[in-house]
Amino acid sequence: MNIQEYFGRISYNKPHKDADLQTLTAIFQHHIHSIPFENLSMHCGEPIELDLQAIYNKIVRKKRGGWCLETNYLLFWALQELGYDVCILGANSYEPAQKGYGAQMNHLLLKVVVKGEPYIVDAGFGGAYQMWQPLMLISGKDQPQVPGIFRFMEDNGTWYLEKVKRKHCIAEHSKDEFPHTPELGNIRKIHKFTLEPRHVDDFQELNAYLQVSPDNLLRKKSICSLQTTNGVLALVGWTLTEMKYNYTEDMDLVDITTLTDEEVEKTLKDKFSIELQNKLVPVNVRGLPPNLVDKI
Q1: Which of 31, 43, 122, 191 is the catalytic position?
Q2: Phi then psi for 70, rounded to 5 degrees?
Q3: Rg of the Cα atoms in the chain
Q4: Is 31 among the residues known to form the active site?
């Protein structure tokens, strides 16, 4: 494994002498704009190994993406290589359908301390709730970013992350593809976590479980999302969603297209720069939202 090869993968070619916030932010943004959040391996017969060398080969050399366990573990390695004070944390994602947080830890994220100040860095949430910059670990402070306003709330040692959502402007030809959903308010809960340091081995059981459990969302949907220069691109099953943030004042533009099997493969190559070795079987279980706007 080589940090320069990783830099090539994320198209980063700026100086990185100091482990400062500016460099951290730049590397993080290159990472999320180059490496998709995706679970395609489980939908084309490939096992997902929670092993650093395997993840490096997959993401850096084969130019694939990965889910939170993979992409954040790779980022953890890169930041360690650059001398950052970084540790792994575990979170429980919010489940909108259940209107509550998952009972078990199901998300890997990072805490980075820069000049004594802690930041949360998470390159693996995907979709419209992906942060674009490290978030200061401060309770109750609005932290505006391009995707929206993020905010932590702390209660008795547990930290809760939420995002203030914008309204959606639905492209005319997409209206039939975008089902009406009851108004849920403009606050979207994302996950909760504590500051207890974790080791990657703490997630091995989760990594195995997510690949075989028929009930988890990642088995029910083939997902590939990538942050763009002005929004997010997401392919779920045969549904391609393109969102442009702040298209008009306090409103995001949503454009949804339904693809054929042949178009799915071409879209992965053209828009996500992904070429799969095995044949993908797209999945999007009926009865679930067809896009990443409010679910992922």
Answers
A1: 122
A2: -90, -55
A3: 18
A4: no
